[in-house]
Each structure stands twice: as structure tokens, then as C-alpha cells.
Amino acid sequence: MMRVVKIGGRAQADPRLTGILRAAWDAGRGELCVVHGGGDEISAMQRALGREADFVGGRRVTSEGDLDLLRMVLSGLVNKRLVNALVAAGLPAVGISGEDDALIGAELIDAASLGFAGQPVTVRTDLLRTLLNAGYLPMISPVAYNTTSPTGGPLNVNGDDAAAAIAIALEAEELLLIADVEGVLDGEGDVVSSLSIEAARGLAASGVAAGGMAAKLEAAEAALTAGIARVRICDLAGLGDAERGTIITQSQSVVL
């Protein structure tokens, strides 16, 4: 069963990460693809350079001057640190970015409000399938290739959006969006076990699901609309527990 997993920056600090990924890989070798984030480290680097991190709808406002910083932090520091840890744990991890072979082609979302933030429009799966078929675990930085520029260049793609696009292109059976909470929370702070797309929109519209969680719900909707059978938002432990977290479906009543 092909699974695409997006792991956020905070989950990467969990000491259980390598063991959980190892178990997931052993359960389905050649059927796991990981996209990573690193937002907190980008924000820290921006602050160190005297810049302020700004977000709209859970997506980072990205200036032209931020692009090399994104490459350095996401495709360099974070990607290679994760690959090194996984290789040390016996996993055949290979680090790539959305710029490699234009793996993730993106276009600007709204230059006026988000700057050089992009939305995936194409995913070239040849490189991914070559790695998977050869027994490697792809570890992907979501920095994407700008398809709208004649000279290319990078665009900052939200990791959840990148993971959804890759899941669609690979025709994955499941998309997992790993958060720093067990799942989507309702207004009382309890985990919602199942959400329809309609109910998810309602949580975002009411502000109950905001920021990064709202972006995850948007990515989940995009994946489901394109035919992905199952999308789940969960914490790191959900990689080894198929029922943990919040399952997003095309149409289903909310179950608390």
C-alpha cells in the first residue's frame, strides 16, 4: 500500500521518529514516500537575519530574499539531517527536493499577498518511482521548481500541499499529514475521529481549525477531490496505528 507522509518540523524532534519510520518502511518496503517541513527553523533563521515571519492562511509569506534561505534550511540543513539520522538507523533514505528534475512544478499563488509562495501544478514521478523501485526511501524537501519563470528558480510550497500533490501523482492509497497534536481538534479541544470535507470546511471557516491545521485540511480536500481514498491527520504515533488521528473523507458525518 503506497503511503505518502508529511512530517512537520516539530515531529522531527521526536526521538521516536527514526524507529517509527523504520517500522513503517519494514511493513511496506518501496511503498513509503516522505515529505518534510521545517517551518520553525526557517522562522528562527529569518529572525536571526532581522526578518519577521509572516503567514496568511497557514502559508508563509515569502520574499525573493527568503528563497535562498529556504533552500539552505529545507533542502540543506533539515533534509540532510533527516537523511543522516535515517541512514544511521539502517534506512536507505535519499534526500531530494522539489527542484530536482522539476519534481514539484509550482506556480505563484498570489504574489501580492504571499510573494514567492507556490502551489503545485505538476509532479514528475519518474525520479520517485526509480528510487522506490530500487528500494530507496525518498525524503523530499518541498522547495519547488517555478514553472512560470523562463529561467526556473525556486518557489516555497507548503509541505502539506506538496505531500498532497505527490500522493495524487503516485496514486497513493493513503496520505498522512503528521501534526504536533493527535488529530483535528473540535471547539472543546477534543480529537475528532472522522470529518467530511464539508465539516472540515466548517471548522476552518469558524476559526476552530486555523493556521497550519487549516492548511492541512485544504491539502486533505485537494487529495480527496483528486481521488486519494484516505487522508489522515495524526501525530507521529499514527504512522504505526491506522486508526489514530482524524480521518478525512469525501462525505461522512462527524464522529466524536
Written overview of the protein:
It is a single chain. The chain has 256 residues and is α/β, with parallel strands linked by helices. The protein has a single domain (3-249), classed as 3-Layer(aba) Sandwich (Carbamate kinase), CATH 3.40.1160.10. It is 38% helix and 25% strand. It contains 9 helices and 13 strands. It has helices at residues 9-12, 17-27, 39-48, 67-88, 111-114, 126-133, 159-170, 197-206, 211-225; strands spanning 3-7, 32-36, 55-56, 59-60, 93-98, 104-108, 117-123, 137-146, 154-157, 174-178, 194-196, 230-234, 246-249. Strands 1, 2, 5, 6, 7, 8, 9, 10, 11, 12 and 13 form an 11-stranded mixed beta sheet that branches. Strands 3-4 form a two-stranded antiparallel ribbon. Strand 3 and strand 4 form a beta hairpin. It starts with a strand and ends in a 7-residue tail after the last strand. The model has no long low-confidence stretch (mean pLDDT 92).
Question: What is the topology?
Answer:
Blueprint: E1 3-7, H1 9-12, H2 17-27, E2 32-36, H3 39-48, E3 55-56, E4 59-60, H4 67-88, E5 93-98, E6 104-108, H5 111-114, E7 117-123, H6 126-133, E8 137-146, E9 154-157, H7 159-170, E10 174-178, E11 194-196, H8 197-206, H9 211-225, E12 230-234, E13 246-249
Parallel strand pairs: 1-2, 1-10, 2-8, 5-8, 6-8, 7-9, 10-12, 11-13
Antiparallel strand pairs: 3-4, 6-7, 8-9, 12-13
Mean pLDDT: 92
Poorly predicted tracts of residues: none
The percentage of residues in β strands lies in: 15-25%
At the fourth level of CATH, the homologous superfamily is Acetylglutamate kinase-like
What is the domain tally? 1
What's the architecture in CATH terms? 3-Layer(aba) Sandwich
Helix/strand-derived class? alpha/beta
CATH topology: Carbamate kinase
Shape descriptor: globular
Number of strands: 13
Helical content (DSSP H or I, runs of 4+): 25-40%
